[in-house]
């Protein structure tokens, strides 16, 4: 594997952990696709740094489980902005 890809996978994982970031936020930050973020931290990182991979997985799983809450809050805020008299 190319060295820069390994470095990116580690950087992405550290970013996710430090910022409690979602895949979407991370993809935007690094200017890459969500699928690349996902592949980096779930597949590539496992062979580079399994401990970091599992720590990242925990953050992503929590974020995924809370996704419906964030979506609901965004919808509520949008509704309040657009329908506030």
Short description:
The protein has helices at residues 3-19, 23-30, 34-48, 50-65, 67-83. By secondary structure, the chain is mainly alpha-helical. Helix 2 crosses helix 3.
3D architecture notes:
The protein has helices at residues 3-19, 23-30, 34-48, 50-65, 67-83. The protein is mainly alpha-helical and 85 residues long. The longest helix has 17 residues, at 3-19. The mean pLDDT is 90.
Task: Name the descriptors.
85 residues; mainly alpha; 5 helices; 86% helix
For the sheet with most strands, the description reads: none
The tally of strands reads: 0
Helix-strand string: HHHHH
- Gyration radius, to the nearest Å? 15 Å
Strand content: under 5%
- Number of distinct helices: 5
Name the shape in a single word: elongated
Unreliable residue stretches: none
- Average pLDDT works out at 90
Assign the structural class, choosing from mainly alpha, mainly beta, alpha/beta, alpha+beta, or little secondary structure. Answer: mainly alpha
Helix proportion: over 70%
Oligomer: single chain
Distance between the termini: 57 Å
GO molecular function: DNA binding; DNA-binding transcription factor activity
Keywords: DNA-binding, Transcription, Transcription regulation
Pfam family, one: SpoIIID
Organism: Candidatus Onthocola gallistercoris
């Amino acid at each position: 594997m190319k060295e820069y890809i390994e470095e990116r996978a580690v950087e992405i994982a550290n970013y996710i952990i430090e910022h409690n970031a979602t895949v979407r936020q991370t993809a935007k930050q690094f200017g890459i696709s969500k699928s690349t973020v996902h592949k980096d931290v779930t597949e590539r990182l496992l062979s580079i740094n399994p401990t970091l991979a599992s720590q990242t997985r925990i953050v992503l799983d929590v974020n995924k489980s809370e996704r419906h809450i964030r979506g609901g809050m965004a919808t509520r805020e949008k509704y309040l902005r657009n329908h506030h008299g």
